[in-house]
Every structure is written in structure tokens, then in C-alpha cells.
What we know:
Blueprint: H1 2-23, H2 32-41, H3 53-69, H4 75-94
Helix pairs in contact: 1-3, 1-4
Amino acid sequence: MAFVNSIVNILSRIQKMSEQTSANSIEKKPSSNEEESSNKTQPPLSSIVVDTQTKALLVLFEYLNIANKRGAFTLDESAKIFECIQWFQQKRDQN
């Protein structure tokens, strides 16, 4: 059950970040207070036990979104990452 909750939390965070990225044309670096408040509600990614390929992929997606949120990618790169993530989310929704 905890595994399913972790995946649901990760996917919801990915979806929210992806929507924010595609809606905003200007990247906003979050303040340390915003990062701390989001970490209080969800366990840090480094504490998630990666024991399946699916979990590993979801954690990689989340780390990509964190890097994107911090401004590591251009808008074109962010769009391509979002496009790739959508392929996996569509497959998950179909199953």
C-alpha cells in the first residue's frame, strides 16, 4: 500500500510540475520555504526504496522535474521531457 501511495504521490507531483511548466513561459525558481513545505508533506526522493523498473523510472521522472523546476532546462528541452513523460503516463492510464 505504501508503494502505491508513493507512486501516486510521485505521479501527481510530476503532473502538477508538468502543467506548471507548460503553462508558464518564464521559469520561477522556488524559494527555500516553498521547497521545505513540499518536503514536509512527502518523503524525500532519496528515501524511496527503488526495487522495480517502474519505481526507478518514476523516481527519474521526479528528479527531472526537480531539475526543470530549478531552471536546468530550456523551454524546448522542458517541452521534449514533458512529451516523453506523457508517453509513459498514457500507457499507465491505459492499464
